[in-house]
Amino acid sequence: MSDQNLVNFKPESTSYTTPSTGLVNFTMESSPYTTLPSELVNFTTEPSPFDNISSSTLPIDMVFNDGHRVVIIVNSILIVVSSIGNFTVLILLIRRRLKNPSRIDAMLMHLSLADLIVTFLNMPLEIGWAVTVAWTAGDAMCRLMAFFRTFGLYLSSNVLVCISIDRYFAVIKPMSLAGMDRRGKVMLVLAWTAACVFSIPQAIIFHLENHPQFIWYEQCVTFFFFKEDWHEIVYSLFGMIFMYTLPLIIITFCYASIYIELYRKSRKSTTERFRRSNDDVLSRAKKKTLWMTITIVLCFVICWTPFYFMSVWYWLDKHVAQTVQQPIQKGLFIFAYTNSTINPIVYGLFNIPRRASDKRTSSHRHLSISKRLENLNDRRNSTMSNRTNSTQMTTIFAESPLSC
Q: 166: exposed, middle or buried (C-beta count within 10 Å: 0-12, 13-18, 19+)?
């Protein structure tokens, strides 16, 4: 999600960048424009000896530079990797759902769709914008693409939250499975709705403007929308909270709770002297859940932290942040898109082949996780001993985290 061409003209203010919403600020002050090493350039509205400046000496962000080359190369690679991964996962999930539909498979399909939106809308947009530098697609397309620049990213984060919450209830609240399918559908609807609502302001804020000095230069900007600098910072913080901070907290809490529950049950199984096989199942489930928790949280942090690191740096100390070279800045901004490339690996390719293999090796494993949980919910209405109930719970604990 590089921010090389989103320009915000702000009178009588100091320029800074708010990358979380793709906003790059240009100021109009009573001094000649100065060339900065980032996407931050000051312009003047007064007569200047630079009025007739040639294109070869334009500010660095108004001409094709090394930062744009980084955007084109890296996004091109990400498109190839992400499309292969997400299409592979999506096809496997569709084939499996035709035979044995499950709730978690539906959520994984929505995750793949969200990542494909990022792959085929956001990434090509960044490449095209880097090539043209200026915005050449008109005002309507400026607003539409500003909307989709955040929509796919919001949706991907929201679906990840839905998956973690679904796994949390499957393991922590296995006896409250009535309506789990309905709850899953409601969460997915809310995920799409929230992504749409959170992205609508982008289409309102961004619009097409001509440069105040070089009138031939058009750009997709937020010129004159924010009355005060802190208004824009608040808007950017809103995006950071709902796209990164809150999802990270929820995902971490859910998977940590699953691991703690497995640990508690394993200790209880030792006290009650369960069968050795049940102890082994819980032990394996603990290890796999711990690995999955670390992997999911670590990948999310690695993908998003560099992007927001640069954002927060600009908010706190923009003068120092401006000294960072453009290729480095743009490279850090692009990290947000790597999440859509890693998701099919973490959530799909590591899980789908194993479950397909498990079906061939055991008739018991032929049932999907959601089906087994539903069966357990049906059985709980019958009378069973505490040992029988605990043994069934062991199976759920052992397998539910693997469907994450």
A: buried
